[in-house]
Design goal:
Heat Shock Protein 90
């Protein structure tokens, strides 16, 4: 007796409507279309957003190899899962599941139209229209009314080959023209980072014929230094490289307008751009960085960047998702990558400390720091207090510049009114300004006068060399050895 079988072919409109919610953002959807254009050997790719009097539509044009009726190329491109992800593919193929064009487009609009021309073949055009499929209850493509797409068909007539993707009934587009314009800028930033390696190779990616500039998350030139590059595993061609960015005090003052410092100005700012950047066949999957759960983002690692490159035959190992925007680090690599991250983090800390203030010796004496930081057990918080035992204040009292009682009262008042909330708010707005502030290492006239007083008093008991070495054990003098040499020695 045979085994019973049941047909479980999904209802077309139910499946397609569900696939609209796979999690694509507009930038990610357009990136998926560009992947197809690059795989089709396009050297020119342009996207356009047309407000169209409140009925916006989207176009993506390329001069790739195009498609024809031969072997049902065009029809197959509309099939969900048109490629088996387990099949061996060209090393430069950016595709993965055979879902991209459909799922990316339908995540934004209800009508996807493909107009394409292969060299030596006629122009073809079909639409995947959710409303049409809903009304017919079948997996049907709709032939295109050429009168509605004269401009697109005319565009392809001037090319040997190419493809145009069009979205209509774009129900997830912003409603106002101003919002559409802002969206353009957002998309441009994202694409310029995701595809920066392809732009550097000479592939032109444009917005309305305006060429996007390459924006690497690792600044060029003096912007970052590479300190490690090692393979992740044998027979896999995966490589990890770590970088440390230069300290903010060395940036150009107009860094926000300099494209090579793009990771300082794009998205959420350079502190939040710290992390791992994963490339698959030169396509950046993680343009916003992050440490993928291996460590937390923090000030200590803000200058650290780790780049991982892997080929498309390792997709299963890296668990690439349908949107091609997320990959998971394989368990067998986590320890190795975490070790590299830790090294990069230490390098970041060293550069932050050196960049903030160059301390030439450890502060070994007690009361070396002007500010004392401790835990306030009563309120489960930090406590910041000016150290009244600091030699500077002691000398001011001994020289009768202040009465001890008055000075202690003044320092207590300063300690209790430290503008913590404002400091936190400013740090959230632009932490690099604090870094630049700490890099101002010259002592003021008043600081120098007190330094001379301390130095001369110490010299009454010690040699000049010992007195100078002693002085360098205290803030703020420990940061300004060269200036003090000129003034005191």
């Amino acid at each position: 007796m045979g085994i019973d079988t049941l047909d479980f072919t999904p209802d077309p409109i139910s499946l397609l409507e569900s696939n609209r919610n796979l999690g694509y953002s507009i930038e990610e959807a357009i990136s998926d279309l560009i992947d197809n254009s690059i795989s089709a050997k396009a050297t020119y790719i342009s996207y356009e957003i047309h407000p169209n009097n409140g009925n916006p539509y989207f176009l993506l044009k390329d001069n790739g190899v195009g498609m024809s009726n031969t072997n049902n190329d065009l029809v197959n491109s509309f099939r969900l899962g048109s490629k088996n992800p387990l099949e061996k593919r060209d090393p430069n193929d950016l595709g993965r599941f055979g879902f991209g064009m459909k799922t990316a487009s339908l995540s934004q609009a209800r009508i996807l139209t493909v107009i394409t021309k292969k060299k030596g073949h006629d122009t073809l055009a079909f639409s995947l229209d959710l409303n049409f499929i809903r009304d017919n209850g079948k997996w049907l493509l709709r032939e295109v009314n050429e009168d509605l797409y004269k401009a697109e068909i005319g565009y392809l007539k001037n090319l040997d080959s190419g493809t145009i993707i069009r979205w209509d009934d774009w129900d997830r587009a912003p409603k106002s023209e101003d919002d559409l314009l802002a969206l353009n800028s957002q998309i441009n930033d994202y694409l310029s980072v995701c595809f920066h390696r392809f732009i550097e190779k000479g592939i032109s990616i444009c917005c309305n014929d305006y060429s996007l500039e390459s924006c690497s998350p690792i600044p060029f030139g003096e912007g970052a230094s590479k300190f490690s590059s090692i393979p992740l595993a044998k027979n896999n061609n995966a490589m990890q490289t770590s970088y440390i960015l230069q300290h903010p005090k060395n940036w150009d003052e107009d860094y926000e307008n300099i494209s090579r410092f793009n990771s300082f100005r794009l998205f959420d700012g350079f502190e939040r751009q710290q992390g791992i950047y994963i490339y698959r066949c030169d396509r950046l999957l993680t343009p916003r960085g992050g440490w993928l759960g291996l460590i937390k983002k923090g000030n200590a690692s803000k200058l650290a960047r780790v780049v991982i490159d892997y080929p498309n035959d390792a997709d299963a190992l890296w668990s690439l998702d349908v949107t091609k925007t997320n990959a998971s680090i394989p368990y067998e690599f986590k320890r190795e990558i975490t070790k590299l991250i830790d090294t990069a983090k230490k390098g970041s800390v060293r550069k932050i400390v050196r960049g903030n203030r160059s301390v030439n010796r450890s502060l070994s004496l007690s009361h070396s720091n002007i500010w004392k930081v401790s835990d306030n057990k009563e309120f489960n918080s930090y406590k910041y207090l000016v150290d009244t035992e600091h030699p500077i204040f002691k000398e001011l009292i001994d020289e009768k510049k202040f009465k001890e009682k008055d000075l202690n009262f003044l320092l207590k008042l300063i300690s209790e009114n430290l503008p913590v909330a404002k400091i936190i708010d400013n740090n959230d707005r632009d932490p690099s300004k604090h870094d630049r502030m700490l890099s101002q290492n010259n002592l003021s006239k008043t600081d120098l006068e007190i330094a001379k007083l301390l130095f001369e008093n110490k010299m009454q008991k010690e040699t000049k060399a010992v007195a100078f070495s002693w002085l360098l054990n205290f803030e703020p003098y420990c940061y300004c050895e060269e200036q003090l040499k000129k003034e005191l020695l």
